[in-house]
Amino acid sequence: MSILRKNRHAFRPTLDGTLEDRVVLNASPAAVMRAQAAGMVTPREVAQVHSLFAQQFRAANQQLQSYVQQQISAAYRNGRPTAAQLADLNNNISGAVNATALRLSAQYSTLPGSSRLTSGLQSSLLGGARNNLFSRLSTLTNNARLANNQAALTRAVNGLLNSSSQANFNQLSRFFQTNNFGRTSVSATTGQPISLTQFMGQQVQSLANNSFGALRNAFISSARTGLFANGATPTSAQFQTFARQQLPAAFNAATFPLSSALQVLPGATNSNLIPQLRTSLLGNGTTANPGLFGSLNGLGTTAGNLANFQSFQTGANNAFTSGFSNFASPLSGFFGQTTVPTSFPTTNIPSLFGSNFTGNNFFNGFNSGFGGTGLAGFGTAPTGFNTNFGTGYNSLITGVSNPLIGTGFNNTTPGFGSGGGGGFSSGGGFGTGGTTIGSGGTIGTGSGGTTIGTGGTTTVGGFVPGSMGGFFM
Question: What pTM was estimated for this model as a whole?
Answer without folding.
Answer: 0.81
